[in-house]
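Quick question, first post here. What does this chain look like in 3D?
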Amino acid sequence: MFENETNDQLTFQDPVTRFPEISPPKQHQSEPGLDTELIPQTDRGQDSYRGTGRLMGRKCLVTGADSGIGAAIAIAFAREGADIALSYLPAEEEDAQEIKAIIEGSGRRAVLIPGDISDRAFCEELVARAVDALGGLDALVNNAGRQIAVEDIADLSDEQWTATFETNIHAIYRISKAAVAHMPPGSTIVNTTSIQAYQPSTQLLDYASTKAAINNFTKGLGQSLAPRGIRVNAVAPGPIWTPLQVSDGQPKEALPKFGKSTPLGRAGQPTELAPAYVFLTSPESSYVIGETLNVNGGTPSP
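> Answer (accepted):
Ran it through. C-alpha cells below.
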C-alpha cells in the first residue's frame, strides 16, 4: 500500500489541482544538481505510482535515472515489473542510492552504473555493463540531458555548445547504437526531447537545438529499426520541476514563476511524465513508431 494512494495515477482527479502550484524560491545548486537538496521536493511517484504489470520481466536501461524525470521513469518501470540499470553521474550518487532503494522496495532489481555519457567510451561500457548485469536488454530510455541558461549568444562559449551536444544528442546516438546490437524484436527505445524543440527559449539555444535534433533522430531511427521489430519514440516534456532547473538550467529570477504560463497554470511533476514512457515501452503501443508524445500542461505543439 502506497502512502499517497489517493493521488495515484489511476485515480480520477482534476489535473489543475492534482499537484500544488509551486513558486520555487531563488536557489542554486552546482551542476548537475540533486533532488535531495531541491526546494520544494519533486514528486517522482515514489509514494503514488501503482503498476499494473505492463513491463513484467523487461530489462531496461535508463540514463539520468537518479533524479527528476529519469528517477520517475525508473520507479514507474520497476512498479510495472521491470528490472532497471540506472545511469547517472558519480556526483549524483546520493540520489541514485535513494532510487535504488525504492526500486528494490518494489521487488525489482536495480543496477547502479555511474559515469559520464559525454565520454564516447563510457557509452559503450554502459550498455555492456547493463546487458551483463541484467542478462540482456530490451528497453532503453535516453533521458539524461544538460541544460545551462545563457542570456546572450555572445556569452555562449564553444565549450558549452560542444558539451551540451555531447551529452544530449551524441550520447543518444552512441548508446542507441551499442544497445541495438543486443535488442531482440519487441524491444523499445524512448528518447527525451522537449517543448524547447518547438518553442526555443532565447537563453537555451544549445539545449533547444539538441532537442530538435533528438526529434529528428527519433523519427529516422524509428523507420530504420521498424523492420527489425524495435520501436523508437520520444517524449517531449514541458516545464517539469527537477534539479535541472536550479543548476543553471533557468535564470534564477525566473524560478518563482516556473511553469505558471501553461494552460494548467502550474509546473509538472516528474511522476506525470512516467506513464508516457510506460506506454511507449509497453506492447500497448506496438503500432506507434517515430512519435513524439507531448506532456506539457496543454501548451499547443506539433
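The chain has a mean pLDDT of 92.
The two ends are 39 Å apart (CA to CA).
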